[in-house]
Amino acid sequence: MVEPESSSAASGENNQPQATPTAVAFLGPEGSFSHILTQLHFPDSEVTLAPCKDIPSVFQHVRENPGSIGIVPIENSSGGIITPTVDCILEDSSAYQIIEEMTLNVRLALLGRHGGEVKRIYSHFAPFHHCGEWLAKYYPDAEQIVAASTSSSIETAAAQPDAAAIGPRDNAARQGLDVLHFPIEAEVPNVTQFFAITRAGLDVLPSEDSKTSLVVMLPDSSGSLCDFLTPFARAEVNLKRIESRPIRGRPNTYRFFVEVDGHANSPKVRQALTNAEAVSESIHNMGSYPASRRYES
Length: 297
Description:
By secondary structure, the protein is an alpha/beta fold. It has helices at residues 33-41, 55-64, 83-91, 125-130, 132-138, 150-158, 171-175, 224-234, 267-277, and strands spanning 23-27, 48-52, 69-76, 80-81, 96-105, 109-112, 120-123, 143-146, 163-167, 178-181, 191-199, 211-217, 239-247, 250-261, 282-289, 293-296.
């Protein structure tokens, strides 16, 4: 059954969640794009910042610390969906709530040492996707090594005289490196979208730009996905994302992460959800939340 949204369904201005977090966990270490977004989103806040080694650790921090918020990337315009975030959402969807989606315009730099040979380049997988053609042109012989985050890749490169890393320009001074190139592929849009997550149950102010995220289980039968999607098309509700993962112990059965435009209590979305629920095993509402905040890195 689709869980009801709390409080009013009327549209309003884009607002922060109606609570001050006790701590904000993010994919670290400090200097990552998740850290940059966290600082931009909470510029005057005195909350504790908690860098985490990986995305599952951000979810764990939120689960174990009531009142905290987690900042996790969900999609990059070049690298695509961030798989660990979707996996964590689907693994225990009832424990979490999405309270906002934010966008960061990512500008990348190659950090290393002037005059040195670059044999290895470290970065997160998404920058490698974005910079693939540029790297093939200027550093065709350099080995590309994927790291857990851009900031950790810069830390690793800083310890090797013949290595460089792709990441935020401001990390050069932090790690004692030089900015070899900036920006990389500036003419190609490169944005990363992030979710702010918390433990389920937080009231979020209504917004004109709301999105709604759902975790869906469908019958293992022919046409079940089409049956689920049809009510949204008929109600003229736009679907933004749909990702599937197999359910452990149930061969050929999948759980879906779905994002739609609009608030769950708006007439169109409510009607679509009612009709979709009739052909689904279950639909869990992860929250309706504002999605218009944009930042520059």
